[in-house]
Structures are given as structure tokens and as C-alpha cells.
Amino acid sequence: MIDGKILAQMFLSGANNLYNKRHTVDELNVFPVPDGDTGTNMSMTAQNMAKSLLEVQSDSVTRIADVMSFATLRGARGNSGVILSQFFRGIAKSLKGKNKCDAHELADALMQGSEVAYNAVMNPTEGTILTVAKAAAKAATEAENDVLSVIKSAVTVGNATLSKTPDMLPALKKAGVVDAGGQGWVFILEGVLYYLESGKIVECEKSPEAETAKKSDTAQQNIDTKDIKYMYCTEFIVEKRNSGVNVLNFKRAIEKTGDCMLVIDDDDIVKVHIHTNNPGFILENAIKLGTMINIKIDNMKHQHQSLIKEADEPKELKKYGFVTICAGDGIANIFKDLGADTVIEGGQTMNPSTDDILAAANGVNAETIFVLPNNKNIILAANQAMEISQKNIVVIPTRSIPEGISAIMKFNSEKSPKDNETAMNKAVKSVTSAQITYAVRDTEADGKTIKKGDILGLVGSSISEVGKHPDDVLFALLDGIVTEDSEFITVYYGENIKESDAKAVAEKIEDTFEDTEVFVKYGGQPLYYYIISVE
Fold this sequence. Notes:
- By secondary structure, the chain is of the alpha+beta class.
- It has 21 helices and 18 strands.
- The chain folds into four domains: about 1-205, Serine Threonine Protein Phosphatase 5, Tetratricopeptide repeat, CATH 1.25.40; about 230-305, Alpha-Beta Plaits (2-Layer Sandwich), CATH 3.30.70; about 320-430, Phosphotransferase system, mannose-type IIA component (Rossmann fold, 3-Layer(aba) Sandwich), CATH 3.40.50.510; about 430-535, Hypothetical Protein Tm841, Chain: A,domain 3, CATH 3.30.1180.
- The strands form five sheets. A six-stranded mixed β-sheet has the order 15-14-11-18-16-17.
- A hairpin with a 2-residue loop joins strand 12 and strand 13.
């Protein structure tokens, strides 16, 4: 039998173990491109949970499980992070109402976590983290009647299933790797097992908060605290008095007293987050719903933690707004010029969290806010932000920068939200996206033998060309994707390409493809020499 404190220490140890081994998971990327980030995304999602576990003191299994669920929901990054948050959502649902849990109840929680994660994915694929977690959970339910045996069985079968994932997915077999997400989940379980066997929590090798602070030092120094409109970051969980409490009335009562509001009505509890100048008013209204737990109030002026800069005077509510995600100052400026209200820095190597996207959308004063993820690994987090937001968010599932630019250019402020959504989705399908980067390891992919350092040309998510020089690969790609119906070629050059070289490339493209209009623009993106759009 375990209580909330033990449960918290178990998964704190698991989160730290994953963080310490995140680079191992990153290196399991099927494609040999320099943006393998499954380990980074999963570990940052788990570390958001770890941070919350360090701040809460409770003996209740229910309360700890709710904290883990809420923290991973808000901190979810990338597809792997969103799936991980769904595991903990299922675990929390299974442990609802329990002050302690025994081995069988813990095993059942792992199984329900697996089931909720499966249901959250539109087209589940076997040979992924879902398969590994399901097999581990099934083994846990069949284990002997003690917690240590449950986790031992989960780890043993999880590892065995992980080793079989290359036989389930041909892409894994060709790349010579196991599934990255499955490996991440096994690392979490192994961290849990380490705690149960030793009584010690796996020590986090380096604080991710320290890394984040280091990256953000300059930005934080430039923030004037007088620009922080709402001083107190207030968050807590309410255990409902009964199922008939009116959560909608609570939302309406507090929504004008702050910003970045998040109110999630989840079965027997309500999860609340808001930036406000009057936390007392928020708590007075919340206590009408039931018993408050895990109350946390931070003074953001004192701690310099605000990431959203609000104007001193309220802005007039406009009809439409845009939030877009990209890497590269040139591309960010292009989106701003096209009307984006907020540009979140991120993309291939740093996927923003659900909370990042939610906060950005909450900072846009518009009736309808369109979100452009511009990366297939950010779409799930954007959808999760849309589902829990109090605002009317519409996600256009753009998978690349060219798709995002094509979508926002199709926007018409005179049309309805639905008509704009239809038009932008149609525009996304009319553009062909390609990218040029380099290989980070030897492998075989898409029928090609690849050596570390080779230049790779990707069309969509497939490796189409392999060469030794970015310009050679660029023209090989264009030969394959430019047709007689193509009208526009746009090339965005990255931070490692000189302007003079980009101009020379532009002239050569114009000479080669005389019947198309050619645009070469500074993108400033890292890792990718060129991003190409053909329409």
C-alpha cells in the first residue's frame, strides 16, 4: 500500500531518470536529421510535473495524481509530451477518490493511463510508445500482490516489448533503432523502480529550470515590471462538493479579474490557473464549489516571471487574431508583416508547450484566434490548447513554414471564421514544402544510404535527395517538385547561408525555371539551409 508522498517520490524519480537520459531518446530519431527531440519534449513535459511535485505536500494519492495530470497537461511539448500527459490523465482518473492505493490499484491505473492515451490518438500505430505502455501495464496487472512486483513486471515486459518495436515498424528496423517514445516511457518506469528498490530518488543531473533561466536571462532583464498588468499567478485544485456545482458561473465570475485563465472541469475536481491582482476574490468564489487544495500564489513582479507583456490601456476587442510558431528571425518578421499578433519561437528543435500556446492565445485580444503550428509535432499541443481554452481558438494544422505562410496569406478579414478556416485549409493543400538540412548519423532511410554529414533534401517528411552541397541538393529537389503548373518558387535561406550566396542561388533558379516567379528571402532558421515553397 502506498500513499501520496510515496507516489510523488516514485514519479519524481521517474521524471529525473528520463531527464538524465533524454539525449539517448533524442538519438533514436528515425530520420537522421538534427531535430530528434522526443527525449527533449518528453523530459520537459515530465520535468514540469516534477517541479509541481516538489511544490506540493500531500498524503493523498488522488491529490498527487491530479497534480501530475494537470502539470503534464499544461507542460506538454510535442506529440510525445501530449501522449505522456494523456497517460497521467488516465492514471489520475483511475486513482480518483483514493487516499492510498495497493498494488492492484496502481496496476489498474497504469492500464487506464494506457487506454486514455490510445483513445487520444486518432490513428494509433503499433510499435510506438502506446504499444510499449500497454504491454507494460498488462504485465503489471498480472504481477504479484505488491507494488515492487508490479513495477518490476512493467519494466521487464516494457523493455522486452521495446526491443520488438523494430519488427512492428519497418522504419525503425531500417534505421536500426527502437521507438523513441517507448524508450522514454521505459526510462520513467525504471526511475520509479530505482526508488522502490533503493528508497532514493534518481538525482536530476542538471536542473532544466536553470537551463531555461540561462537562455532567458537577457529577455528577463529587458522586462519592466511596470508592464506586468496582473501581479499574482494563482493556481489550485477544487474538490467538488457535489456534481451539481456550477463551474460555468465560477468562470464568469472570475474571467474579467485577470488573464491567462485556465479552468478545467474534470469529473470530481476543477483545476484553476489565472493571473490576477485579487487572488482573494478568486479563492472566495472557488470555495463555493468545494474544498481547495494545492493552492499556489506567486508574485510575478517580485520574481520577474511574467512572459506576457500587457499594454497599460485595454485594447479594443478585434474580430480576428493570429498566433504562429516558427524558428528564425526572418521568418518571424514575415509572419508579423502578414498580420500575426504573436510569434512563438520554436519549431524543429524546441516545441512549445500546451501552456505556451495557451498563454500566447490568451494574450491576443480577439474574438477568434487562429493558431498556425507550422510543424506536425506541434499540432497535438495546439489542439490541446484549443480544447482547454476559454477563447475561440481555431487550429489550422499547418505542418511547415510554407504551409503557414500560404494559410495566413489566404486569410480574409471580411469573411466568417468558418469560411476563413476552409479557405486556409485549402491553401495548405496547394503548396509543396521542402527543406534542406544535414545528416547527424549513418543510416538507411527512404531507400537511400546516408552517411553522417550528408546534405539531405526533404519533401514533406520523406528524404528525396542526398548530396554533398546544399545548393546541389536544392536544385535536385526543385527539379523533382517544380511542374509546368507551378507558378511561384519561394526559398527561405537559413542562418548559415550568406546573403551573397542566396542572391546567386536566386539568379540561377530564375535562369533554370523561367516560367515561374522566384522569391528568395532571409529566414534565419537554424539547422535548415533552405526551406522551399512551390505553388
